[in-house]
Inverse folding.
């Protein structure tokens, strides 16, 4: 009798978020290297798909290897690449682009046949903005002048925060919000949750059945839904059990797991749906839980009822349920 199919059996590529999924600042996340090695061993393509536009693919790959995670440069897809590609489709070749971001982003813009600058002139035809810890008022002021003068504006991503070992810190989306407020203009966004970054990564991997894996509902999972790809949410970064219970329709994963080691376990055990040992009823706007067992199995069952009923409030009615609900932070 054959073993139950794992996520690696069901998919021909895994498209992995980085921050909060594979590493947390300078610390590798427990189980990440083992999960990625299992994918390689199974012959499943691996792509690291990140909204972080601050580094070049070879820099991300080197950082991953330093953390003990196997990675090649050609396995990395960044929002800097996606932003440059989108910009090249919006403006003529040789357009002068004001870059708000790192040298890695500037290199990607030049690689698609556009010229770059760091300050505003009348010749600026576009602005591209990606995360850099060095972005300050002076850089935003130059971009503000260009956008107000009519330049096309592309944001590599709009994540309000970036996870670090010190906690959540301002991300590119927070800087984008400052320019949005100052200009009354919205950028075109290249990275997640737009589907392009995932579809390009899957195409590069030659994948027909990719699985998106990430820790954020509003970027990783929403991007997977937009790209019509299966998604696994891991609880190693931003999303909490309460977040996933309250997730809107466009941000709901097919699978839930603690971390990347779950790539090798039976897929059916990770899927959203009822679970033996847990009973869930509905009383008004509250989900009533009783039973005992794995808290993550409870969460998978709760998601099905919460998404169907529109209710994310949870109340435990016996000791086993109270312990599980407490461990999930619900």
């Amino acid at each position: 009798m054959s073993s139950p199919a794992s996520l690696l059996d069901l998919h021909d590529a895994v498209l992995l978020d980085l921050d909060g999924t594979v590493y947390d600042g300078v610390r590798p996340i427990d189980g990440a290297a083992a999960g990625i090695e299992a994918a390689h061993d199974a012959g499943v393509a691996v792509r690291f798909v990140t909204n972080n536009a601050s580094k070049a693919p070879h820099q991300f790959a080197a950082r991953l290897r330093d953390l003990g995670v196997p990675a090649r440069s050609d396995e990395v897809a960044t929002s800097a690449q996606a932003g440059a590609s989108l910009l090249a489709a919006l403006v003529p070749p040789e357009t002068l682009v004001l870059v708000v971001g790192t040298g890695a982003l500037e290199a990607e813009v030049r690689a698609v046949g556009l010229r770059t600058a760091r300050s505003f002139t009348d010749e600026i035809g576009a602005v591209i903005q990606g995360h850099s810890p060095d972005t300050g008022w002076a850089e935003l002021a130059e971009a503000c002048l260009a956008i107000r003068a009519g330049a096309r504006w592309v944001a590599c991503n709009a994540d309000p925060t970036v996870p670090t070992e010190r906690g959540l810190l301002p991300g590119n989306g927070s800087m984008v919000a400052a320019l949005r407020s100052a200009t009354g203009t919205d950028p075109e966004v290249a990275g997640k949750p737009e589907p392009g970054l995932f579809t390009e990564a899957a195409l590069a991997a030659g994948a027909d059945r990719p699985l998106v894996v990430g820790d954020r509902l509003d970027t990783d999972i929403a991007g997977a839904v937009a790209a019509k790809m299966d998604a696994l949410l891991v609880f190693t970064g931003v999303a909490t059990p309460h977040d996933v219970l309250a997730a809107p329709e466009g941000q709901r994963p097919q699978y839930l797991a603690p971390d990347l080691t779950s790539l090798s376990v039976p897929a059916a055990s990770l899927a959203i749906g009822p679970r033996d040992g847990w009973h869930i009823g509905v009383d008004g706007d509250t989900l009533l839980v009783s039973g005992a067992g794995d808290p993550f199995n409870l969460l998978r069952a709760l998601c099905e009822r919460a998404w169907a009923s529109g209710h994310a409030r949870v109340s435990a009615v016996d000791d086993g349920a109270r312990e599980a609900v407490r461990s999930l932070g619900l």
Summary: DSSP finds twelve helices and 18 strands in the chain.
